[in-house]
Structures are given as structure tokens and as C-alpha cells.
Design brief:
Layout lengths: L8 E4 L24 H7 L1 E2 L1 E8 L15 E4 L5 E4 L6 E4 L5 E5 L1 E2 L5 E2 L4 E4 L5 E5 L4 E5 L6 E6 L6 E2 L4 E12 L2 E10 L11 E7 L5 E10 L3 E5 L5 E5 L6 E5 L4 E6 L3 E7 L4 E7 L8 H8 L7 H7 L7 E6 L5 E5 L7 E7 L5 E8 L3 E6 L2 E7 L6 E9 L1
Parallel strand pairs: 2-28, 8-9
Antiparallel strand pairs: 1-19, 3-31, 4-5, 5-6, 6-7, 10-11, 11-12, 12-13, 14-15, 15-16, 16-17, 17-18, 19-20, 21-22, 22-23, 23-24, 25-26, 26-27, 27-28, 29-30, 30-31
């Protein structure tokens, strides 16, 4: 007799086999790669990243403590604008790591936030903070950081009647002359949506009134997910370990960089949709071990493990993070085997050549690279305290 668990219905989007498609895009010619990833890295310049300061290290007497989920933006003076899930506001630090100011607080008024804001430093160091819960963008003055304007974007989350999904606000990608770029993702509605329907992430241009002026600048498959539903229970959603994801960034000269990390192929075009180029770099796939597969699959009921096993990738993504420096070069954190203490970062130019490379502790995630500084975040292994770490870059 079959157990109750056999009534599980598993709906998996095997996005590993999906083809990336992008509206308004015609692929440019790509430079032919004729060398392996290992050979390209061996020829690249080795960068040295020397720690300049860190913020949040209680062991050194630092009184600034973060709550995790750190994000960092930097202005032209090197000041840091740090957000974390511990507060509904923005902390401002000098270019030496000293706490200068706190912007915003929890609330519904001008300059207040209902959720941790997403911050972007725009032209002339104006600060833009997107509150995804309140569905509004707040503009702060560049010098004293007082709130100047609040823009409501609640009307931009579109409903897809065919698949019963909603495009919800996810990230603030950047600010351009005609408005600001917001990334949306599809969200399923339990018991209503087609759980087997594909999900996408979409980049939209919103004008200064908070209205959509360009509906689909970029469209890509969203993060690999799996959906399961037990008989008589609510549907369950989970990220597939080592699943592929979409990455987007805006360069200082207002070019869109985007790609999906099943391979290192970064596409670049202008806001008006003009195709510029496609940057490809060979990579050496890192396999997912049998132990990693077993540990994830074994957490699910027996009746679903075969289905879960079938959607688990056999290799890790090509890269795990994408950051642009102020010269338009692409910094990528390559995937590393389980337990690796260091992660390899490569610096790629627009011709697809690996110009430079460096290794950082695996707990470090670079967030900003500007001038001769790289700013990253980490979680200290001994204390478990989230940190902001600033490095000086030398060749």
C-alpha cells in the first residue's frame, strides 16, 4: 500500500536546460575562445588586495554591530552607505570606516522605511533608497542626506492572468537620466498559480513619476526553484542548491550587463536596446559531490526523493557574484569546491580576456570596486559577526 507521502506532487522548473532569451536583443558577434579557463587565469595579472579597515569586528572593540544581509554602496568621496536586515535605515561611514550618520528609520513618513532599503548612489552623489515593502523610492540629498522626494511605484507590479503570477519588486539596479531601473521577479500564488509555469526576472525602466516607461529591458529565467505539495497540505517552495540564477548590473556609463550563471556569458547593451556585445569566458565546471547531493535529497520524504534528485544540478554554477568596477570591467567570483577556504575572483575586460585575478577568503563577498578600493562583506567564522571589509588594490 502506498504511503501518504506518495501523494506528493513535485513541480520542478529545470531551468538548467532553458535557453536565455532577452527582449529587444540581437546577439552580437562573440570573440572565439581558444584557451582553457586555467590557462587564461595563469596568464592574468595577480592582484593583491590588502585590508585597509573593517567595520563590525567586536573582537577589536568596534561598537558598530550589524544584523546580517549586508549591502554596500559608495559615493565619489569613498563614503560607505551600509544596509543590513537588523535596521530599517542606512548607516553612513567615512572612507576610513568611521561612523558618520544614520539615514532613515522604521516608519511610514518621509525618509522612513518599512523594510531594509536597497541603496544606489546616483549622479552627483544623490542617494536613492528603494523600500520593497512600501513600494516607494526615496531620494536623499547628496550632502546632508535629508529626504528630498518620495516616489510611489506600487502600480508597477504587474499581474499575469495566464499563469496567475505577480511581478514583484526585487532590486534597484541603478539610476539613469530618464528614471531608475528596477528588477522584478515572478511570484507564484499558492493554490492559484500554475506551479509548473516558468518564472522570470524582468528589468523595467520607471520614470520619475514612478510609472513604467520601458516594460522589458531584460528578461531572463529566474533562480532555479522546486515546488512540492503534499496531499492536504500547503504547497512548499525551495531553492535548488547550486541552481542557476540571473545577474544584472549597470555600469558607470549606463550600459546594462546581465547574464545567467550556467556559463560565463555576460551580455551588454544600452538602455535603448542597442546591442553592444556579448562577453564569453571559458570556465572549468566544479562538480557537485555525491555527499552534497545526498544531504539535500535525504531531507525530503521518500516518495519525492527521485524527483528531487532529478532536478539537482551535477555541477555548481560558473560564478557566484558579479561586480562592475568604474572602468566597466567585470569582476566574477568563480564557484569553488565544498569546503574551500578561498574563492577565486577574475577580472574580465570587454573583449572577454581575463586581465587580472585574485583570491580572497571564501567568506568575503565583494560588493563595490571603485578606484583602488574594493569593499566586501563577510561573516566572521569564529564570532559569527557580519563585517564590512575595505581593501586596497595593487598589482
Amino acid at each position: 500500500m502506498r504511503s501518504e507521502m506518495s501523494f506528493f506532487a513535485v513541480y520542478a522548473k529545470n531551468l538548467l536546460r532553458c535557453t536565455l532569451f532577452v527582449s529587444l536583443l540581437v546577439l552580437g558577434a562573440c570573440q572565439q575562445q581558444d584557451v582553457s579557463s586555467e590557462a587564461s587565469i595563469a596568464r592574468a595579472t595577480e592582484l593583491t588586495l590588502t585590508e585597509v579597515f573593517r567595520i563590525g569586528d567586536e573582537t577589536t572593540g568596534d561598537t558598530v554591530l550589524f544584523g546580517g544581509g549586508l549591502e554596500v554602496a559608495v559615493n565619489s568621496q569613498g563614503q560607505l552607505f551600509v544596509t543590513d536586515r537588523g535596521i530599517r535605515g542606512i548607516r553612513v561611514f567615512s572612507n576610513t570606516g568611521a561612523l558618520m550618520q544614520r539615514i532613515g528609520r522604521a516608519g511610514d513618513g518621509p525618509g522612513e522605511f518599512q523594510s531594509t532599503p536597497l541603496v544606489h548612489v546616483g549622479p552627483r552623489d544623490t542617494i536613492y533608497a528603494l523600500d520593497t515593502r512600501a513600494k516607494q523610492l526615496t531620494v536623499f540629498a547628496p550632502n546632508n542626506h535629508t529626504p528630498m522626494e518620495t516616489i510611489n511605484i506600487s502600480g508597477t507590479e504587474a499581474f499575469d492572468a495566464e499563469f496567475q503570477t505577480i511581478q514583484v519588486v526585487r532590486y534597484l539596479i541603478g539610476v539613469v537620466e530618464d528614471g531608475f531601473l528596477v528588477q522584478y521577479r515572478d511570484a507564484k500564488i499558492p493554490l492559484m498559480s500554475d506551479m509548473d509555469a516558468p518564472e522570470h526576472t524582468v528589468l523595467k525602466l520607471l520614470n520619475w513619476n514612478g510609472e513604467v516607461s520601458a516594460d522589458t529591458l531584460v528578461k531572463m529565467p529566474n533562480r532555479d526553484m522546486v515546488y512540492a505539495q503534499a496531499r492536504g497540505q500547503r504547497s512548499m517552495m525551495a531553492k535548488i542548491p547550486f541552481g542557476r540564477d540571473a545577474f544584472m548590473a549597470l555600469s558607470p556609463d549606463n550600459l546594462l550587463y546581465y547574464g545567467r550563471n550556467d556559463a560565463i556569458e555576460i551580455r551588454i547593451h544600452s538602455i535603448d536596446g542597442t546591442t553592444r556585445r556579448s562577453v564569453r569566458v571559458p570556465h572549468d565546471p566544479v562538480p557537485v559531490t555525491d555527499d552534497e547531493r545526498y544531504n539535500w535529497v535525504s531531507a525530503y520524504p521518500d516518495g519525492t526523493q527521485d524527483e528531487m534528485r532529478s532536478v539537482l544540478p551535477k555541477t555548481r554554477p560558473a560564478y557566484e557574484a558579479l561586480v562592475l568596477d568604474d572602468s566597466g570591467r567585470i569582476w566574477l567570483r568563480l564557484s569553488a569546491p565544498k569546503g574551500a577556504l578561498e574563492a577565486r575572483w577574475i577580472v574580465v575586460n570587454l573583449e572577454g580576456k581575463i586581465e587580472a585575478t585574485t583570491k580572497l577568503p571564501s567568506i568575503i563577498w565583494l560588493k563595490v570596486v571603485a578606484g583602488d578600493r574594493a569593499i566586501g562583506t563577510s561573516s566572521d567564522e569564529e564570532q559569527g559577526a557580519p563585517l564590512v571589509v575595505a581593501y586596497e588594490i595593487t598589482e
